[in-house]
Amino acid sequence: MRIDVLTLFPEMFEGPLSESILKQAREKGLLDVRLTNVRDFARDRHRTADDYQYGGGSGMVMKPEPIFEALEHVGAPVAKGDRTGGAVVLMSARGRLFDHGLAADLAREPRLVLICGRYKGVDERVAGAATHEVSIGDYVLSGGELAAMVVVDAVARLLPGVLGDMESAETDSFYEGILGPPVYTRPEEYRGEEVPDVLKSGHHEMVRRWRRKEALKATLHRRPDLLERAELTDEDRELLQEIEAEDNTI
Ligand code: SAH
Predict the structure, then answer these.
(1) Torsion sign over Cα 56, 36, 160, 183
(2) Which of 53, 120, 140, 146 to mutate to test the pocket of ligand 1 (most atoms within 8 A of CB)?
(3) Same domain, 161 and 182
(4) One domain for residues 95 and 11
(5) How many A from CA of 121 to the centre of ligand 1?
(6) I need a surface site. Which of 15, 61, 118, 181 has the fewest CB within 10 A?
(7) Cα(147) to centroid of ligand 1, in Å?
(8) What distance in angstroms lies between residue 194's CA and the mean position of ligand 1's atoms?
(9) For the segment 61-92, what is each residue's pLDDT rounded down to a tens digit?
């Protein structure tokens, strides 16, 4: 998948893109991230990408022209509602909260363009050219770059072939709408705490059921909101009843 990132700070992406899974995905040709410096499209002598706000108030605003020209340069459609070129995502604290469902939707797009704001944000006319406005959480970052990296990472993990069997996304939190189970590695006993016996039993069916139950238990205790929306099987409902009965006896 090709992902274009429009930013004033392209160097920020170098670290995350050249380690581990994202590095391998790029080497395998599954992920093609292209960084475009919005400042290259600022036409004036001082290469100004921001300006004062209309109406007054503190904080500069990113000008629309360099961003629109950068969009055109990478071949992204800038007309409202034009979806022919995939998704054009504006990183914004005012956007829709990013979650697994949105990551999965974006992973199915033919390509992505991510726009990173800075300062007080970007001129609202840029939002009009975007197909999505996305926030990674209810807090304000200094710029869209870290948010864009979060989106690139979460989307890349869902692209076919990026994760090997060993890392499979299917057993991670949120894949089936609930949290993932706890995991253990060696040593068998550490500082008085033991790895649960069932995981050492070699009994695949018992391990599967234990993991499912622990995943449901964590979700019930930590994120009950997820359970309301998750698609549960008959076995899940049975396991939840067991968990609730156990909780009540403690
Ligand atoms: N004045 C804006 C915040 C600007 S912060 C407001 O009140 O909403 C500068 C830039 O950082 C934004 O343009 C956006 O691109 C990015 N940003 C800040 N918080 C973000 C968040 N939670 N998710 C995604 N992007 C964010």
Answers:
(1) negative
(2) 140
(3) no
(4) yes
(5) 6
(6) 15
(7) 9
(8) 44
(9) 999 999 999 999 999 988 877 788 899 999 99
- Residue matched to tokens 């055109």: 72
Angle formed by the axes of helices 100-107 and 145-156, to 10°? 70
| Each residue's pLDDT tens digit, 164-191 | 877 788 889 998 999 999 999 999 999 9
Pair (28, 151) in one structural domain: yes
Contacts within 8 Å (CB) and 24+ apart, 227-235: 227/178, 229/177, 230/176, 230/177, 230/178, 231/176, 231/177, 235/209
Q: Which residues line ligand 1 (CB under 6 A)?
A: 91-94, 116-118, 120-122, 135-137, 139-141, 143-144, 147
Q: CA 144: distance to chain centroid?
A: 13
Residue 189 Cα to ligand 1 middle (Å): 45
If asked whether residues 177 and 159 sit together in one domain, one would say no
Which ligand 1 atom sits closest to the C-alpha of 138?
Answer: 22
CB 107 within 8 Å of CB 159: yes
Q: Residue 89: is it exposed, middle or buried by C-beta count within 10 angstroms (0-12/13-18/19+)?
A: buried
For residues 131 and 205, membership in a common domain is answered with: no
